Every structure is written in structure tokens, then in C-alpha cells.
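Appendix C: a fully annotated inverse folding record. The material below is reproduced so that readers can follow the format used throughout the book. The structure is listed first as C-alpha cells, followed by the designed sequence.
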């Protein structure tokens, strides 16, 4: 069983069906104690300063893991800089397997892309279907952690982020990851609620907590979650991280990745955000954007379409929350509290 790197969430059922181990390079990069050094190494290699910190981190992280000799890189539906990233990896001798999410969510085109990935890895649709059934059971545990976050207030925003974002590759071992989540769920259920009231099914209720949504790509400074909770607020909706869990009831693996909102038009994301914001009774939304990312432009659409207070927060490098971001967050929370 070999390791195959990922630049973002892809149909991991195919990778597991081929007997390989998926490794989300994003997770390795951001959890490393030397994350900023990885960014600096990419710049020393020739990457421009005004390129996304995630891209630079992924480049160096792959080179620091020589057991990763192949990478599935998403050429459509993720970062616009991935094409150049792929080429710089190829120069270093890494095999690149391209995968594209069709912009218009066309099911035939998506099936074709998955069929090409199945062929490249030497597996079958039957084996992929078996893996979907297996992984859906693991994903259901992540859905329960999410529910415990927003409905019972027993899970912190960072814990929610950590378990949901890990569903991109299941930490390389779905069975072990499932066992870890089962233990966490049992512990969480025995906790006292983080705040004193549960969410009612009626109109929005005001308690001493501020209930926030976090939308956009996962933050390059995860310290954000603890900072918010120290100031009386909690993230009860992690948009993209939740999407990594494929929170859809479907037996069709192609339809599952067609319903996955992140790679497609922003409008499907907005519909999902609005629905969850109402269900989770959000008081406000933090829209995280990565420096030098084209998705920053989508902020103007999100602000037009969502009827919630929104703070747009920009991040560049994994150096923690800077003073300006902290001041803006404090002002936003103060405004929501008033």
C-alpha cells in the first residue's frame, strides 16, 4: 500500500479501492510545527511572495515526504495556482494524476473524471462502491460530532473543525479514525453543555454565547477558534469542513461528489450556508479568505446573498492571529453582542 498525496478533497473511495493510502497535504502542512518554514522554503526555491501560503506550504510539504511519489491534483474546482504547482512537483520527479470537478456540475463529465481516476489507479467501479458504503459509516460519526456541536453545545469550534476537516483523507486509516471519533463522541456526550441552553426549534434565541458560522477555506491559523471562545463566541458551523464529510444521503458515489458544494459555483455554497445558518441559529458569519486567492472576489456575492452580519477575515501565512485581525474580531463580536 503506497501513499498518494492530495491537494484537496477528491473521491477518496477510488484511492482506497486501489489499495492505496490518501494523504491530504494540507493537513500535514498546517499541523506541522515548521509550517512557516515550509512556506519560506518554497520562496527560496523560487515561489513568488504574492502566491497563496497554502500553495507554497503544499509544495515544500510534498518534498519533505519522499514516500509520497504520486499526487492527485485538482485542476478545476480548487486553487487557480494548482497547475503551476503540479509542474514544479513534476520537475522534482513526483507523478501527477490530474482530477477536475466540472464547473457546471455536469454528472456525465464528473463520472468521466472519476472513470479516468479509476483507470489511472487500476481499480473498478464495484470496488469504489464498496468503499463508499464503508466510508459512509465513518462519515456518519463526523455528522454526529457536528450535531453535538450546534444542537447540544458539547463540542468546541476547533474540535468540530479538526474532525470534519480530517474527513478529506480519514487520516489515512478509516477504521482507526472511526475508533477515535467513537471515543470522542462518548466523551462529548458526557460533558456538560459548553453554554447553558440548547438550541430551540423555534425562533432565534439569545443566550450569553454568540453563535458563529465560519465559511470559506479552512483557516491557515487555527488559533482563531480558541480566540473566539475566549471572547464569548463559538463557531457552530464550519462550512467547507462540513462539506468534506459529504453530508448527503445518496447511494450514488458520482451524485455524492456532484452535491459537494466547494468545487462548483458559489451560488450552491450560498444556498447551503443560508440553510445551515437558519438551522443553527447563527448570530453572525466570519468569511475567511486567503491572501492572493481568486475566491476573495466571491465575498461581494456572499455579502449580497446572505442576510447576516459578516466579517471578512484575510489570512496569509501560518504565523497565528495578528493584532489587526484580533482587533477586528473583537469589534465584530462587540457589535453582535450589542
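Designed amino acids, in order:
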Amino acid at each position: 500500500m503506497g501513499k498518494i498525496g492530495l491537494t484537496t478533497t477528491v473521491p477518496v473511495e477510488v484511492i482506497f479501492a486501489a489499495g492505496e493510502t490518501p494523504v491530504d497535504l494540507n493537513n500535514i502542512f498546517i499541523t506541522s510545527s515548521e509550517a512557516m518554514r515550509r512556506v519560506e522554503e518554497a520562496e527560496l526555491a523560487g515561489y513568488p511572495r504574492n502566491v497563496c501560503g497554502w500553495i507554497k506550504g503544499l509544495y515544500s510539504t510534498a518534498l519533505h515526504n519522499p514516500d509520497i511519489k504520486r499526487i492527485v491534483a485538482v485542476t478545476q474546482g480548487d486553487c487557480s495556482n494548482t497547475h503551476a504547482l503540479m509542474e514544479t512537483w513534476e520537475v522534482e520527479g513526483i507523478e501527477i494524476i490530474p482530477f477536475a470537478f466540472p464547473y457546471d456540475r455536469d454528472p456525465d463529465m464528473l463520472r468521466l473524471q472519476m472513470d479516468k481516476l479509476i483507470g489511472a489507479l487500476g481499480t473498478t467501479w464495484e470496488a469504489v462502491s464498496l468503499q463508499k458504503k464503508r466510508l459512509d459509516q465513518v462519515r456518519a460519526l463526523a455528522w454526529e460530532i457536528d450535531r453535538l456541536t450546534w444542537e447540544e453545545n458539547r463540542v468546541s469550534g476547533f474540535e468540530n473543525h479538526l474532525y470534519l476537516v480530517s474527513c478529506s483523507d480519514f487520516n489515512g486509516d478509516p477504521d482507526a479514525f472511526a475508533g477515535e471519533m467513537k471515543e470522542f463522541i462518548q466523551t462529548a456526550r458526557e460533558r456538560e453543555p459548553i453554554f447553558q441552553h440548547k438550541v430551540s426549534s423555534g425562533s432565534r434565541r439569545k443566550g450569553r454565547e454568540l453563535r458563529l458560522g465560519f465559511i470559506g477555506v479552512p483557516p491557515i491559523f487555527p488559533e482563531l477558534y480558541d480566540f473566539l471562545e475566549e471572547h464569548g463566541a463559538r463557531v457552530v458551523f464550519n462550512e467547507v469542513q462540513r462539506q468534506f464529510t459529504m453530508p448527503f444521503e445518496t447511494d450514488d458515489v458520482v451524485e455524492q461528489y456532484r452535491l459537494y458544494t466547494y468545487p462548483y459555483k458559489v451560488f450552491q455554497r450560498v444556498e447551503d450556508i443560508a440553510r445551515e445558518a437558519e438551522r443553527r441559529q447563527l448570530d453572525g458569519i466570519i468569511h475567511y479568505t486567503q491572501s492572493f486567492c481568486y475566491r476573495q472576489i466571491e465575498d461581494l456575492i456572499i455579502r449580497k446573498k446572505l442576510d447576516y452580519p459578516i466579517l471578512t477575515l484575510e489570512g496569509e501565512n501560518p504565523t497565528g492571529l495578528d493584532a489587526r485581525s484580533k482587533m477586528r474580531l473583537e469589534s465584530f463580536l462587540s457589535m453582535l453582542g450589542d
